[in-house]
Amino acid sequence: MRKNRLTIVVAAIILFLIGSFFVEKKETAKEKLPTVGVLQFVSHPALDQIYKGIQAGLKDEGYEEGKNMKLVFQNGQADQSKLATMSQQLVQEKKSDVLIGIATPAAQALANTTSEIPIVLGAITDPVSAGLVDSNEKPGRNITGVSDKSPVDAQFDLIAQLVPKSKKVGILYASSEENSKYQVEEAKKIAEEKGMTVKTFAVPSSNEIAQTVQVMTSEVELIYIPTDNTIANAMQTVVSEADKAKVPIFPSVDTMVEQGGVATVGINQFDLGVQTGKMAAAILSGKSQAATTPIYTFKTGDIIINQKQADKLGITLPDNIRSKAKIIE
Ligand code: TRP
């Protein structure tokens, strides 16, 4: 009898221990969903589209927010010290398993914070000159992702067809943005090769944009804008000043054409995000590793035209362009 009771007690204790072990395991698994930490540099329509695309890309690959993945989003509001603090939070407090940086300054802040957690670049103009990877083919560190390098050559071909008589180009960008400097150099070279003269106008901050555009409109025949976050964020100001002088704006992305640019050959911003989200998913599931995954680049862009703006400025669209273009009303 005694012995039997002892066996029962011991068995009960063992069962209890086994049971609690499984319960505990299940609970920790529930607490720690794989976490994706996203840091966006600032809000402007293009970057907002990219973030939406990222969510769609993760979902396409089976990661659903709240179900089998935790998504933590932070917006640095173009403030360097906010970017640094938020990077710390995403790494230390939120324990992100994969990080995503949207726009160059955000990606750089993340890269300064961790050299271990994988970082996926969300639409970075030139990851090499931004000091983020060794090369686009073999990134080599904890970083890979998507580049949104503009098809600058195709953009200037389009400009030459739409405004064949305009030869004086002014390029508007912010001096604080590494990513723009790269594209400005390239645009200058290409425009000059096509027989245009180029003058660059770098603004120290968004406060000087209105005045700078006023100066530009008295000196140039068209304004070209690279994928510059500061200018994208102040596109309305740029458009209203340029409109007063009837000087056409040729930006580098669809969203800036929608906001009052005339035309571009650009990569769809949402698609950039989808690709970024898919690459993050592949790293999260262990299918790929940052160091050995090449930077993804888009080979072509779409022709986007703002019909209203073209009409307003007396620019007629040749039929061969109209038939290929996406026309925004
Ligand atoms: N390429 C920019 C960077 O590296 C970010 C960016 C993506 C962007 N799409 C844009 C900037 C559209 C301006 C407009 O920072």
From TrEMBL:
InterPro entries given for it? ABC_SBP_TrpX-like, ABC_transpt-TYRBP-like, Peripla_BP_I
Q: Extract the Gene3D superfamilies matched here.
A: 3.40.50.2300
Provide the leader sequence positions. Answer: none
Q: Name one Pfam family in it.
A: ABC_sub_bind
Protein name as annotated: Peptide ABC transporter substrate-binding protein
